[in-house]
Amino acid sequence: MSSEPIPAQPVALKITPPSQGPLRRHTHTYDLMRQCIHCGFCLPTCPTYSVLGVEMDSPRGRIYQMQAVAEGRLEITDDFVEHMYCCVGCRACETACPSGVQFGKLIEAAREQIQIAEKEGGIRPGRDDQQDNGATPQAVTDSTAATDKLAKKLLRRFFFDLMLPSRPVLSLVFGGLKLYQRSGLQTVVRRSGLLDVVNALPTPFQGKLKLPEQLMDAATGPIIPAHLPEITPAIGQKRYRVGFISGCIMDQIFHDINEATIRVLAANGCEVITPVQQNCCGALHVHAGEAESGKALARHNIDVFEQYNFDAIIINSAGCGSTLKEYGHLLRDDPAYASRAEAFSAKVKDISEFLVGLDWSHGMGPLARKVAYHDACHLAHGQKIKQQPRQLLKAIPGLALVDLKEADWCCGSAGIYNITNQDMANELLERKMNNIVATGANTIATGNPGCMMQIALGARERGMDLEVMHPVQLLDEAYRAGGLYNLPEPISVEAGKQKYTLLLGIGIGVLIGAFLLRRRRRS
């Protein structure tokens, strides 16, 4: 008998499952996880899996990790966080899943659990972060990582807690960006090379600052948009009374789309009520794991809109609409709001979904456009709305609707994904633009502001003469071509304000540009 010692077997550490939050046993989310039969039908539809080929970055792999956390077999580490936030949240896997797994709710729950863990004591480093090859002192590495995390945390808190819920702050931020864009300052900054210098500085956002600045080229509408009219009467006989959700970023960047939506609704016999008291719908909060903030915003909107006896509540932004229709799920454990949330969500309709149920095609003039339609993920996969926008477009006289290959494949926008995960977003955009080029279309129609900005960016980068529009803008254009209504003349006072603001911005831009050129010559 050998006297050699028997090597000790490694002992698996017992990891305690979360004590609160959605990723734990005996919860609604845990039951949703267990519906997955691990068949793999979701894999070919997953954008991140198609690029990376990594099981942990597929829907099936992510569900496996979520369940392991719930059962205490896996810690919430940086690795787990990376896999959960690498997901674009497109929900294409839901369309492909034979078991009906509601992956959108699961990924939101996983991100909510990450935020809870962050507040409870921080996220533990993953395996890659624990390795030290000796090239950099560990203290320096830890200090840099801590600084990066703090900077990103502060930016996150500003975005979700301060900016999105506040119209004045939104107006200040986006008004400043549009002023920068239109005053000439953007041109000066780009030509001077200052943007490249700032982007290359060793900050937590090194190499990530150019894209947000480039996306703003797609912003339209006034610098500081006025409130939409609270009551817009129907054109002709009133048939419906609808509420309109104007959105937060949608109203700031694409205010003209909101105006077009109201005109089209009015043209179809709708009295449109746009409550001034409404706020952000909470979609970006919920998608990012900020569930508690999302719930607070949802409660406020329910309080505002249930005061009216609406036939429907209309939304023209796919991502917002998906969350608005899931208020019932979001507030399912709130005894004061659960049933009210269900009633609210039952009335929410995407603009295309609502219009196809009406006798809406009369009075349109011809449009000589060749149009390809891109399915916004949260419209096609979240709300299961695919044919309705196409029906609207096909009914426009003179408009030629052409097929777009992989029309329902994510463009890489995905809320703020194209800013937080720029490399992956660029891969997806490149694939989308290749398919768009193949159509030969001069117009791309899509029902989500993020998709519009992302595709417009792709077109500018390729030097394409491509117009990116919301389907409702094309309907609005057709109604105007048919003489059903004309655009109202701008109010002189408002026009004067805009002109003064723009001139002020140009003056500031010239001064800053002169200062930068002077410094450059001295150096």
UniProtKB/TrEMBL annotation:
Under InterPro entries, the record lists:
4Fe4S_Fe-S-bd (IPR017896), 4Fe4S_Fe_S_CS (IPR017900), Cys_rich_dom (IPR004017), Helical_ferredxn (IPR009051)
Question: Can you name one GO molecular function term for this protein?
Answer: 4 iron, 4 sulfur cluster binding
Where is the chain membrane-spanning?
Answer: 500-517
Q: Where is the composition biased (Polar residues)?
A: 132-144
Domain of life here? Bacteria
Q: Which UniProt keywords apply?
A: 4Fe-4S, Iron, Iron-sulfur, Membrane, Metal-binding, Repeat, Transmembrane, Transmembrane helix
User: Pfam families annotated for this entry?
Assistant: CCG (PF02754), Fer4_8 (PF13183)
**Gene3D superfamilies the record matches:** Alpha-helical ferredoxin
**Record domain 4Fe-4S ferredoxin-type: where:** 26-57, 72-101
> Which residue intervals make up region (Disordered)?
1-20, 120-144
Q: Where is the composition biased (Basic and acidic residues)?
A: 120-130
Matching entries from PANTHER family are given as: GLYCOLATE OXIDASE IRON-SULFUR SUBUNIT (PTHR32479)
Its recorded name reads: 4Fe-4S dicluster domain-containing protein
| Species this chain originates from | Ktedonosporobacter rubrisoli
